[in-house]
Structure formats: C-alpha cells, structure tokens
Design goal:
Blueprint: H1 5-13, H2 15-43, H3 65-74, H4 77-99, H5 101-106, H6 112-141, H7 151-178, H8 182-202, H9 217-220, H10 223-229, H11 233-256, H12 261-279
Helix pairs in contact: 1-6, 2-3, 2-4, 2-6, 3-10, 4-6, 4-7, 4-8, 6-7, 6-11, 7-8, 7-10, 7-11
Length: 281
C-alpha cells in the first residue's frame, strides 16, 4: 500500500503552480544579484520615499546588499508563497467539496483528520521545497557577481519565508472549513492577507499605523531581520504555534461539518425555481 497517498495526490494537484512560482523565484534571484553591481553606485544617493520605506524592513539603505535584496526579493516574494498557500488550502477543502471529490474521498475507510492532515502535509512540503530550491540560484549567481552577503544569511532569509507561509496555509484551511463556499473563504483569507501587508508596508510612513504595524505577521517575518540578525527562532516558534492551532481548529470543525450542506442549498433553490416555472401557464 502506498504511503501517504492523499499527500502525494495533493502535491501532484498543485505541482504546476508550485513549479511556476519556483521558476519565478529563481529568475528574480538571478536578476537581482546580477544587476546589483551595476546599480550599486547610483543607489547610494537614492532617497527612498517614506511610503516605500516599509519595503526595506529593518535595512537602512537600498544601496546595501541587505536593503537591495529585501526590497527587490524578500518584500514581495513571500506574498506569492502566501497566496499559493491560501489558494491551495481552500482548494483542498471547499474546492474539493464543491466539485464532489471530497465526498468520494470521505466515502473511503479513512478518518477525516487524516485526510486533512495529509492534504496540509502536501501543501506545506511544496512551500518548503519552493523556498529551499530557490536558494541555489543565489549561491550560483554569487560566483559570478560581487555581492557582499554570505550564503548563510541568504539561506536564513529564505528559510524565514516558510513559517509565515505555513501560518497563512492554516488560515486558508480554517476559512475553507468554516465558510460555505470557496469564493467566500478566498475572499476572507485574501482580505486578511492584504490588510496585514498594507499595514506592514505603510506603517513606516503613516504615523497612525506605526503602532498597529506590529500586529501584522509580515512585520515579524521581515526578511531584513533574518539577513541582519539570523533566524529569529522565537518568531518562528510563534508562527509554528499559530499554524498548529489553526490546524487543530480546522480539524475539529471539519469533523463536525456536513459536507453536503455547502452546495445542496443552490440545488434546492434551482429545483424550487423549476417547480414554480412548471406551474406557470
């Protein structure tokens, strides 16, 4: 018997999107390191507008390797990973439910918690693989360009993207089992993600948001902090704790959820509409 069949199926279903994101990350990594030596001198006198200082995180200048890599890679690439996590999570719950695939799966002699756990494991593995497989692009490109930042620090920042992605994976999973449709789950999850990112980026320029900025998970997953100070283990543990809590909550709700309830009511409305139309002369 094949081990973790649901995990393998989940990874297969989302492999195309994962490969596309990985190739994008590799291309951006190579491009950023390649153009930095050419732009280094001109960036020394470049004044970053207040509204864009949030993209630098804790870095002081975009002319430094830390500031440049933070602004050009670690300020927006995590958004792709987070978006992938949310889309994949809602697809494996509300999406599969709407298509009827979840009904067929749960008809097999397998516990609901195992189904959910294996699906999460597949998505989490893809996220970790995308991050780790993008690192060789930095390492190889550094052999040909002058970029004064150690491979260890870059790897640390790359790994630092994983915990926040897993946290939003848990959020997408939770939204997928709470809300009746995938569209509503995506709307809520993406709305929270966008709000958190806007607060993080604008908090450095808008005084009213400066204190609220610390409530954003993107603030605690700042890539520049990892590049400057190493992997913040206490922050990583908090993200992992939140992810675990979201998974437990989603599993408990999923155990009690009536799988058919989210899509029987449109069928009933359609049936009632047809009955009314049939009685008309």
């Amino acid at each position: 018997m094949t081990r973790l069949p649901i995990t393998r199926k989940t990874m297969h279903d989302h492999s195309s999107a994962a490969i596309a994101i990985l190739l994008t990350m590799i291309a951006v990594a190579v491009l950023d390191l390649s153009i930095y030596p050419s732009y280094h001198a001109s960036l020394k006198d470049f004044e970053i507008p207040d509204a864009l200082k949030g993209f630098l995180g804790g870095a002081t200048s975009i002319a430094t390797p830390v500031g440049f890599l933070t602004a050009e890679f670690f300020s927006w690439v995590p958004l792709m990973l987070v978006a992938f996590a949310i889309v994949a999570a809602t697809s494996t719950t509300a999406g599969d439910e709407a298509s009827g695939a979840l009904d067929l799966l749960l008809a097999q002699p397998v516990a609901r918690r195992r189904v959910l756990a294996e699906k999460v494991l597949g998505i989490a593995a893809l996220i970790a693989a995308m991050c780790l497989l993008s690192f060789p692009a930095f390492m190889v490109t550094k052999l040909f360009v002058d970029f004064d930042l150690s491979n260890v620090k870059i790897l640390t920042a790359v790994v630092n993207m994983i915990p926040i992605s897993w946290m939003f994976l848990g959020l997408g999973l939770l939204a997928g089992v709470i809300f009746p449709t995938r569209a509503s789950a995506l709307t809520v999850a993406f709305g929270l993600m966008i709000a958190a990112y806007v607060i993080f980026t604008l908090g450095s320029a808008v005084e009213a948001l400066s204190s609220v900025r610390m409530a954003s998970p993107f603030y605690w997953a700042d890539g520049s902090h990892a590049l400057l100070h190493g992997l913040p283990w206490e922050r990583v543990l908090v993200f992992l704790g939140i992810s675990a809590a979201e998974l437990v909550a989603a599993a408990l709700i999923f155990e009690r959820r009536d799988i058919m309830s989210s899509h029987t009511w449109p069928k009933r409305l359609t049936w009632a509409r047809r009955q009314v139309q049939a009685t008309r002369p």
